[in-house]
């Protein structure tokens, strides 16, 4: 399995293409849809789905063009089912950007094991930054796509609608830090890190 990172949009959000065999997952298509379409077509792999760690505007900006281009289902946690089409909830109303309005997700993410195409992974609920935040844990490969819960020496902000600092800290300590130290964390912003490094060096936790 290979994870390709693309820094996208006005907030420099990390979007990911995850590759395995001839299958491809799109995770958090944050913006710049033409760039992503060009890259997906260059890879000549079959997209299977769009997965969202959460529905803040800077993570969903390219959802509609990609969904239409490849006829893909979009997965999101049910706690944010209203956010896709609501700029006040997805946050785009409060930033100097065009308001982001998407169609609802096609399917809801549930905690636990999940399989799509060639991919087997676990969905972990990671509320705090937002109420429906999730992380995708690829146990066999020892990789985590963490969204905006845990960063390299940082944590997600909690001052947007329905964010909660205490919940986020609890999420990180009880859920993410329970994973093996060697697991590589691919966050929603900034560089990669590991669970072990964040246990030792993250000043917020």
Automatic annotation (TrEMBL):
Residue ranges of domain Metallo-beta-lactamase in the record: 12-189
Cofactor list: Zn(2+)
Gene Ontology terms, MF aspect: hydrolase activity; metal ion binding
Pfam (any one): Lactamase_B
CDD domains (UniProt xref): metallo-hydrolase-like_MBL-fold
Domain of life (superkingdom): Bacteria
Keywords: Hydrolase, Metal-binding, Zinc
InterPro entries: MBL_Glyoxalase_II, Metallo-B-lactamas, RibonucZ/Hydroxyglut_hydro
Name listed for the protein in its UniProt record: Glyoxylase, beta-lactamase superfamily II
Species of origin: Halolactibacillus halophilus
The organism's taxonomic lineage, starting at the top: Bacteria, Bacillati, Bacillota, Bacilli, Bacillales
